[in-house]
Amino acid sequence: MGFSAPTPLRHVLWRELPEPSVGRRGPIRLMPWLVGATAGLVSVQFQNVNAFTFVTVIWFISVIRRPSRHRNSLFLVPLCVLPVAATVVTGDLVSNPLLAVQLLAFAANAAMIYAKSTEDDSRLMLRGLLHVCTIGAIVGLLQVTGALDYGVWHYPGVSYFGRPSGIYPEPDWLGMFGGIGALLAWRTMKLSTGRYIVLAINLSVFILAYARAAWVGLVFAIAMYALVSLYRARGGEGRRGRVVQGVVFLGVLSALTFAFAPPSFQTDLASRASSIVVRQPDDISSQARTRQYDGLVRLIASAPWYGHGISASGRVGVWGAYDQNSSNGVGTNWILCLWVDAGFLAIPLIGLFLFSALRGTRTLPGQILLFLIINNFFSNSTFFPIIWLVLGLTLANLKAQALKARIDRREPNEGEEWSHCQNEVGLNMPI
To answer: Could you tell me the maximum CA-CA distance found in the chain, to the nearest angstrom?
Structure first.
């Protein structure tokens, strides 16, 4: 949500994103923007390596001489991921060994962002992400209007217009990135006509994609943000008022949009939303998802304590049946999938995601991370670069908060670290 914190705290925790420093030009600005932009893509690869991985490594090399925020920051994420990736050797049902390499690469990317990103880097990364989300949303709107005659999925009884997919393989991913684009537009853009245009574009495809997982995730992320902000704003009426105003604005906007929409759209939207709570007899996707959950639970019951091996969850087919010849490597529910793949070895990675999202709920990347975690219970994007980008930025922000608290207490443990903390705050470290 786009509510201002007091000025000194805002610049250290970076909950709103003003313009990057004027002095930054050329490749220095381009590389972090590309990191964010490639994180907003799904399947752009070179030689089976995601473009996000290539770009992040190049950016990291360009800033490698910067002091790291924490001496162990490069190892936290990889250490949590390594036990899951190691099951490629111990597992008995591994279907896609390259998934272990991809997981380690994404973990390394998140560690690089955590260790080396500055405030300007992070702003540019999120700006690149917003740009790609908005481009995908525009393509989705063109598909709905018929200006582009591809990428529209038609399901009986789901949408009169059809479900656009934008620049993504499926409508569910367009809806997910539309929700991310809406959060970014609301919280990073200044009050202007352009802000509301970008917000409207992303919210439109967020709704028109009929991606129920994204709907649930965004509502949960906004609700958690509001609750945490109201709790921490006790005694600060100005801050509490801004939170309430933002929630009311979104509620009124949603109600007006629904009231003035075509009757066919109202019927489709109401039916789709109600199916989140009450399963409809003709809801094929809901039935398939339930069967997939049952299939994953059966695999968990048969797995050793270290799981069946990474990508084993992908052997559960669309209708929940075990497919020995499946080449898919990822199932539907992210926690169930990790447990099928790695069993108890997945606990550090699951804990890292949950802790980072809940601890960083009030920050922008933390809120996006929470949104993705909820979305991933229904449409799993764990092996997309976007979640690793926001994980790195969330960890960077949590470290910045800890440094700020230490400086405020004036209790440095070591002179060198105290000097480093001062430099970090002087850089206005990210969110």
So the answer is: 67
In a domain, residue 16? The reply is: no
For 126, 286, 295, 378, the CA distances from 321, given in Å and listed in that order, are 40, 15, 6, 18
Residue 156: in which H helix or E strand, if any? none
pLDDT digits (tens, 9 = 90+) for 69-87: 566 677 889 999 999 999 9
9 domain-assigned: no
- Cα–Cα distance, 431 to 420 (Å, whole number): 18
Beta partners for 322? 316
pLDDT single digits (tens) 321-355: 777 777 677 888 899 999 999 999 999 999 999 99
The answer as to whether 275 is a domain residue is no
**In 147-305, which ranges are continuous DSSP H helix?**
171-188, 193-208, 212-232, 237-259, 263-274, 284-302
In this structure, is residue 18 part of a structural domain?
no
Count of domains forming the chain: 1
Taking the C-alpha atoms of residue 347 and residue 245, their distance in angstroms, rounded to an integer, is: 39
Write the CB contacts of 224 (distance below 8 Å, at least 6 apart in sequence).
361, 367, 370
Alpha-carbon span 132 to 205, nearest angstrom: 14
Closest of 332, 255, 250 to residue 288, by C-alpha: 332
DSSP codes, 62-113:
HTTTSPPSSTTTTTHHHHHHHHHHHHHHH-SS-S-THHHHHHHHHHHHHHHH
What range defines the domain where residue 411 resides? 27-236+243-270+291-426
The two beta strands, 45-46 and 152-153, are unpaired
Report helix, strand or coil for 255: helix
**262/140 Cα distance (integer angstroms):** 19
User: Helix (H, G, I), strand (E, B), or coil: what is residue 180?
Assistant: helix
Tell me the one-letter amino acid at 249: F
**Whose CA is closest to 203, among 214, 188, 193, 192?**
214
